[in-house]
Amino acid sequence: MGIEGKDKVKVIETGAQALSGQLGKTIQRLRKAYNLSLSELAEQSGVAKSIISQIERNETNPTLATIWRLSQALDVSIERVLSVADDDPFIEKTSRGDTPILVSDDGKVRLGIIGWIKTVEWLQWYDVQADPGGVLDSDPHQRGSIECLSVIEGEMEVEVGGEIQKAKAGETLRYRCDRPHTVRNVSAKPAHATMVCILKAAVMD
Fold first, then answer.
1. Where are the domains of the chain?
2. Can you name the CATH fold of 96-198?
3. Phi, psi of 61 (to 5 degrees)
4. Confidence label for 13 from pLDDT (cuts 50, 70 and 90)
5. Which of 4, 29, 81, 137 has its CB surrounded by the most CB atoms within 10 Å?
């Protein structure tokens, strides 16, 4: 049996209020995940700080244009922003053939780009395969950036600013990569590692 008249309006208003409340929680969760202040999100989205604050507190029903601007600033689809459930499953699969490969100048180090394209401006990660003696020279990244090299097989070393540290399987090196840095396979067999680059990270003590 259909719902008509005042009852239908009441149901619509209740649904809109529930959606708005969920939207506010989602916007706030994403903003905090990106470590953005209200002012920073306002600047990036073009939506007034006061409006964003009202949305997060469920004090207003934003227009579709406002939701779109916020979704663009938070690098998430508008469908995800409007999703009602907090725990919706998200699984995305990439095949080996779809994984881009970067090769070092000496041809002995290969970096499979396994990071998500949506995070490339602030988070990048790679699958590193290095032949014996392979060297990967890198230019400085953005100021304050940090790189983490976790060795899975073999032994590798990192050189930054004249300082050299080695790591074996099961060990991780973390270092500033906002200056020239070099990664080498110093073992007599192929080495395998995972490399994560955090751009604009806090400067290490």
1. 5-81, 96-198
2. Jelly Rolls (2.60.120)
3. -105, 105
4. very low
5. 81
Closest CA relative to residue 55, chosen from 97, 87, 21, 84: 21
Which pLDDT score, from 0 to 100, does residue 36 have? Answer: 85
Whether 164 and 157 have beta carbons less than 8 Å apart is answered as yes
pLDDT in tens, 28-39: 888 887 788 999
Q: Which of helix, strand or coil describes residue 5?
A: helix
Q: What is the DSSP letter of 107?
A: S
Residue-wise pLDDT tens digits, 80-130: 666 645 555 567 777 777 788 889 999 999 999 888 766 777 788 999 999
For residue 44, pLDDT over 60 is answered with: yes
What's the alpha-carbon Rg for the chain, to the nearest Å?
A: 23
Give yes or no for a contact between 168 and 155, defined as CB atoms under 8 angstroms apart: yes
Domain 5-81: which topology? 434 Repressor (Amino-terminal Domain) (1.10.260)
DSSP 204: P
Beta bridge partners of 134: none
Query: How much of the chain exceeds pLDDT 70, in percent?
Result: 77
DSSP string, 67-81: HHHHHHHTT--HHHH
3-state secondary structure of 66: helix
Which residue from 28, 34, 73 is spatially nearest to 198, judged by alpha carbons? Answer: 34
Residue with tokens 């401006």: 121
